[in-house]
Amino acid sequence: MTFLFVLLQLAGHLFAQAPASAPALSQSLPAATTVAAAIGDDGAPEPAAPRPPEWFKPLRGVHMTGWAAGSAKNRRQIINHLRLAGLNAVTIALKEYDGLMFVRDVRLSRETGAFVNAIPDLAACARDFKDAGIYTIARIVLFKDNNLARKRPDLAVKRPDGRLWTNANGVAWVDPYKKEIWEYNLAIASRAAAAGFDEIQFDYVRFPSDGNTRLCRYSRPDHSGATAQAALVEFLSAARRRLRPMGVKLSACVFGMTTSDDSGMGIGQHIAELARQVDFVAPMMYPSHYNKGIYGVKNPNREPYKMIFRGLRDAVGRLGEESWRLRPYLQDFSLGYRYRAEQVRAQILAAAGRGVQSWTLWNPQNHYTWTALRLNNRPIHAAGRDRAP
Length: 389
Known about the structure:
By secondary structure, the protein is an alpha/beta fold. It has one domain (58-143, 178-376): TIM Barrel (Alpha-Beta Barrel). Helix content is 34%, strand content 12%. The protein contains twelve helices and ten strands. It has helices spanning 3-17, 32-38, 66-69, 72-85, 107-112, 122-131, 146-151, 179-194, 225-243, 271-275, 304-319, 341-353; strands spanning 60-64, 89-95, 135-141, 199-203, 249-255, 280-284, 329-331, 359-362, 374-375, 378-379. The strands form two sheets. The protein has an eight-stranded parallel β-sheet. The chain has a two-stranded antiparallel ribbon with strand order 9-10. The longest helix has 19 residues, at 225-243. The radius of gyration is 21 Å and the shape is globular. The two termini are 30 Å apart. Mean pLDDT is 88; it is low at 1-40 and 382-389.
């Protein structure tokens, strides 16, 4: 059965679920010729759709900043939206790339002034969502940590002359080889697990990419793509040993292009290898972040269906039987091109067309296009009422 036929079946099911007065989805679905152009456009064989284990339930949700999640009023509003849309998961930022974090009583954060009281009661935050049947994910940024790098230069990525290395935006990074940094982030993760979160998600599980990375110097003088990959795998392995006994699942965010590029991309990320160390892997597949011409798409930002459908083809192919672990981040924000319900819905349908059932919507201001998830007051996905595992 071709993926085009699967897609058309999905579309027909969605129409069948909606009353006659519902708005048509045809505006969100690409024409058959467009779909065909996106399928196997480089001649590669089509991968089989993932077959998850029996215990698996799809996780579909949204990302929240720590500042938004810290407000009980905001939590109630998001919970209401999630319920109406048939979603069952929320990802909450507990540490951001500037290095600020929202978890109390971590030694290194006290020494560097990283803690900010954005979430006054972390346990209550997790409990509010869990009481509503929402699966809770704590997102922790690892090695892009401007505050720690500047407060503790001995832990930072350096330039050849010993000065602090910064990226194109002046943001400093910490050295992923340094075990003290590992311990710092694992301490944050441990406290999040103790507060009741269901899952710990590590972001920026990688080496620097933007800026003049040829000037980067690390504590390991023989740094290479192979040693970078090994360090990331070793960190996730240490995280698994530390956190699994606490009853939490683990996930890792990766570059969107790692679904198709297995070179490591100079940052140490090989999606299949990282996926083996965690329960779920989250490629950040925002169409606005892809270079023009990738996958033969002239303007990726204007073709969200094609980008997700094509990228997930490669992801499913790389992960094979483990591709049920995929939970991509999808774009629900505008950057150079206005994203409305049609563009958001197109990404969700593209993921479904590849058999990828889980996803997270991202909007940096927590403003989600809830209409993209509903069709005449019904969730657009048939399994939208699945409970979290």
